[in-house]
Amino acid sequence: MPFFIKSKRKQSKSKTKNQRPQVSLSGEPSKRKRKKLRLQNEEIESESEIESDEGERKAEVVTSSDEEETAQEKKLRLAKEYLANLEQEEAEKREEDDIHRDIISHRLKQDLLEQSGKVQKLVADGYEQPSLDDIIVLRGHQLSVTCVVISPDKRHVFSGSKDCSIIKWDAVEGKRLHTIPGGRKGTEDTHTGHTDHVFCLAMSSDGKFLASGGKNKFVLLWNPDTCQLIHRFNGHRGAISGLAFRIGSHQLFSASHDRSIKIWNVDELAYIETLFGHSDAITGIDSLFRDRAITSGGRDASIRIWKVVEESQLVFNGDPGSIDCIAFINESNFISGTDNNSISIWSLMKKKPLVTVKNAHHGQDQNGNSSTQTNWITCVAALHNTDLVASGSKDGCIKLWKISKNYTVLQPLYSIPMVGFVNSLAFSPDGQVLVAGIGQEHKLGRWWRIKEAKNGIRIIKLKRKDV
Predict the structure, then answer these.
(1) If DSSP states are collapsed to H, E and C, what string results for 288-352?
(2) Distance CA 174, CA 172 (A)
(3) Strand locations in 135-281, DSSP E?
(4) Which end of the chain has the smaller Cβ count within 10 Å, N or C?
(5) How far is the C-alpha of 216 from the C-alpha of 218, rounded, in Å?
């Protein structure tokens, strides 16, 4: 029985295999077949839609998971950036500290070299010839200007005159700010100020004190800001010919025609000591960083450096004549001017000058005749620790000089036209300004008179070629 059933099943299967699809007479599938095909197509379409929906869901899941990962990565990246910024800031701070440390170290070395006189900045060749537009003329004194000083910030200039007055000037705007009037002779005890010729001025390196001296034989100490008198130092028996503050301190040196130098403590308003050695009236004085001063002895033809701590002095002998002015170039070298129209450069290591320029100012007198013998060197000035110096006389110009070849050569650089006696010169600390005190007469007498000259001060702007 099972055998026949199985064979029937096989026969039925073979029949279905060999059986053709029923086609209508028109050649189209039957209705039942069309319905079946339509159902199959719908099933296929629904399955593809399901698959596409599932793909979109999967894409959405993947996208959301990617967004979650990006947020985490962003947090991680921000954290890394924050740490990197901190590291960079710390590195920059370390670099800045190293740079500041290097700058401080370099500055200390530079100051040490400057104080020891072992450094020379070569700046003279960098200046150009000053023009008339670079000169500011300030007038206010009735008689010849004998001395000038410029404040450390180069904003103010103070000038003294034979008319016994002191004037404070605004160097930037070129106007007079304050006048300390002079008094009549015999009123020294009641008048606040000078009652005779003012010969010298000096200002402390921090700009807190101004000192003045003259024929009155005393030194007056002023407040530069208010021009009020602070103290009066008595003790000299002759006219005060020179004043100098030691740089970086309030120690004041005063030189006098009584052939002595006195040291004062300005902070304590006290006298310290007196130095003797010159055999004639002292004509000039200067000081730098060290506790020492340099003086010119006039007719005794000597220059002396006073070592205060060591209680000793160095003596330098010049040519016959009167050494009328002196100025430090650095702690080891200095410049002097004499009444025989010569300028000399000196060194601490030699008793004689390294170089001397004779007939340094060879102008003409009022009649057009050569006046080299009467062109006394009335003042000299030096831009500290450089190769630039200046000198003045009555020949109608201020001369700028260049020092070269280890202080053994002094070359003329420029001449600045200036009618009258150049009684005083002062450089600003940065070398951008040169101030001159001009008068119709020599600061110490009335041997000559230049009527064409105008009493006052001249502010000369020194321009550099590379600016």
Answers:
(1) CCCCEEEEECECCCEEEEEECCCCEEEEEECCCCCEEEEEECCCCEEEEEECCCEEEEEECCCCC
(2) 6
(3) 135-138, 145-150, 156-161, 166-170, 175-180, 198-203, 210-214, 219-223, 228-233, 240-245, 251-256, 260-265, 270-276
(4) N
(5) 6
Pair of tokens at residue 266: 């300005």
Q: Label residues 399-431 b or e (16+ Cβ within 10 Å = b).
A: bbbbbbeebeebeebbbbebebbbbbbbbbeeb
Separation of alpha carbons 147 and 436, rounded Å: 8
CB under 8 Å, gap of 24 or more: what pairs does 347-355 form? 347/407, 348/117, 348/305, 348/314, 351/315, 351/316, 351/317, 352/316, 352/317, 353/318, 354/407, 354/408, 355/407, 355/408, 355/409, 355/410
Indicate the SS3 state at residue 198.
strand
360 contacts: CB under 8 Å, gap ≥ 6: 337, 341, 342, 343, 377, 391, 393, 399
Neighbours of 167 (CB within 10 A): 25
Measured at the alpha carbon of residue 10, what is the angle toward residues 5 and 16, in degrees to the nearest 5?
Answer: 125
Residue 327: how many other CB atoms lie within 10 Å: 25
Residue reference for tokens 């170039």? 329
Tokens linked to 55: 């793909």
Give the three-class secondary structure for 69: helix
Mean pLDDT split into 10-residue runs, the chain, 467 residues: 44 44 47 57 50 52 52 82 86 79 74 67 92 93 96 95 96 93 89 94 96 95 95 96 95 96 96 95 94 94 94 91 94 94 94 93 60 82 95 93 93 94 94 95 90 94 83
Classify strands 456-461 and 240-245 as parallel, antiparallel or unpaired. Answer: unpaired
3-class DSSP assignment, residue 21: coil
State the pLDDT at residue 465.
Answer: 84
Residue type at 211 in one-letter notation: A
Residue with tokens 């006048």: 179
The pLDDT of residue 44 is 47
Q: What is the pLDDT of residue 435?
A: 96
Can you tell me the distance from the alpha carbon of 359 to that of 393, in angstroms, rounded to the nearest whole number?
A: 11
What are the Cα distances from residue 446, in Å, to 302, 443, 449, 450? Answer: 25, 8, 7, 10
CA dihedral 401, 404, 410, 415 (to 10 degrees): -20
> DSSP readout, 31-47?
HHHHHHHHHHHHHHHHH
- One-letter amino acid for residue 204 of the chain: S
Enter the pTM of the model.
Answer: 0.76
Name which of 429, 210, 405, 442 is nearest 325 in CA terms: 442
